[in-house]
Design goal:
Length: 200
């Protein structure tokens, strides 16, 4: 693992990827980015980087939710899917999905931030959980939900670039792009800085 932070190695990694694939910016039709929810700092770094690239190159920008990207890996299952990400503060980011037409995942709830106990109250049928929230709250889900709780393997706990690209493709075909000047992450809840600002 690199000891460098994302902000120090992201652009270098992009440059290396372009070099290894023998691709230049003229061959790229769009840039897809994960909008969150997730780490506030990571989202800001990632989105700021691609906004700069989109504005500098004129390449369209597409945004995809991290929860959507996790869920889309399971369009073959017949039960509900619930990605859960550790939101700290004894909460999780979550949403509910069902396989819809053409075996594509359809989100059936808002993007949520809530306690795992509140999340459990929404579960009344077998549900497949995926995401790093399992590492923190998996035991609680198993205890409270029993056989209603099923868990994806740990190697699928994080949004993959392939999933982001898969969900970005139909948006590209429909020309549903973000404005790089105004695009913002999907935080779901206010950051500590915003909360503290409102208190002052």
């Amino acid at each position: 693992l690199s000891k460098l932070t994302h902000s120090k190695r992201l652009l270098a990694s992009i440059q290396q990827l372009l070099r290894e694939t023998d691709t230049d910016w003229d061959n790229i039709d769009a840039i897809a980015v994960c909008l969150g929810p997730g780490s506030f700092t990571g989202l800001r770094i990632g989105l700021s980087t691609v906004k700069g690239l989109a504005m500098a190159t004129g390449i369209p920008l597409i945004g995809v939710s991290s929860l959507d990207a996790l869920a889309c890996q399971f369009s073959f299952v017949s039960i509900g899917v619930c990605p859960i990400l550790d939101a700290r503060k004894n909460e999780v980011y979550a949403a509910f999905y069902q396989t819809g037409q053409n075996e594509l995942m359809k989100r059936t709830s808002d993007y949520l931030v809530l306690s795992p106990e509140k999340l459990i109250e929404h579960i009344d049928s077998p549900t497949l959980f995926v995401g790093d929230g399992i590492e923190v709250y998996g035991d609680l889900l198993r205890t409270e939900l029993g056989e209603k709780a099923l868990f994806a393997p740990a190697q699928l706990y994080f949004s993959r670039a392939a999933s982001i690209g898969f969900l970005a493709l139909p948006l590209w075909k429909k020309q549903e792009f973000l404005d790089p000047a105004t695009a913002v992450p999907v935080y779901v809840r206010a950051s500590d800085a915003e909360i503290n600002l409102k208190k002052n």
